[in-house]
């Protein structure tokens, strides 16, 4: 019974595949012109460090209070996180890990009414504002537009 169930599942998956008509045509034979050869595609698979697979929690502390919370997590593969939150929903925290290149990555963040604001030397930064645009912004700030008059409203 179990073998029949497995066979049915495999056949169902094969027929549900968007490639199945082409593959069935290729497997079924026929003239060389109607055969479809599946394209070989290189797939990059991220390297998983053996330590990551077997990582264990070294330290975990969760403290929930009426005025907020704090949490700390450390694993045996050098991943760490700590965060503190208040009753208003503001959270301050940091997390870090060792990259596959062996570099220590550390980020700090604030999540509050202004959104999520991460900081870290590894985060990309925006390019500087070009000098011409900076001068234009300064000129606009120094020369605000005149207030509009509402003479039409006063006449009524």
From TrEMBL:
Keywords: Cuticle, Signal. GO terms for cellular component: chitin-based extracellular matrix. InterPro entries: CHIT_BIND_RR_consensus, Cuticle_Struct_Prot, Insect_cuticle. GO terms for molecular function: structural constituent of chitin-based larval cuticle. Residues 1-16 form the signal peptide. It holds the Pfam family Chitin_bind_4. This is Larval cuticle protein 2-like isoform X1. It comes from Drosophila albomicans (Fruit fly). The gene is LOC117568645.
């Amino acid at each position: 019974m179990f073998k029949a169930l497995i066979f049915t599942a495999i056949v169902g998956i094969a027929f549900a595949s968007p490639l199945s008509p082409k593959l069935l045509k290729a497997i079924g034979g026929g003239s060389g012109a109607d055969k479809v050869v599946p394209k070989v595609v290189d797939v990059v698979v991220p390297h998983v460090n053996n330590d990551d697979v077997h990582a264990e929690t070294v330290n975990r502390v969760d403290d929930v209070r009426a005025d907020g919370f704090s949490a700390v997590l450390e694993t045996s593969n050098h991943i760490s996180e700590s965060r503190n939150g208040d009753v208003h929903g503001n959270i301050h925290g940091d997390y870090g890990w060792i990259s596959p290149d062996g570099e220590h990555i550390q980020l700090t963040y604030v999540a509050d009414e202004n959104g999520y604001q991460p900081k870290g030397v590894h985060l990309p930064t925006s390019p500087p504002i070009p000098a011409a645009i900076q001068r234009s912004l300064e000129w606009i700030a120094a020369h605000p537009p005149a207030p509009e008059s509402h003479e039409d409203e006063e006449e009524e």
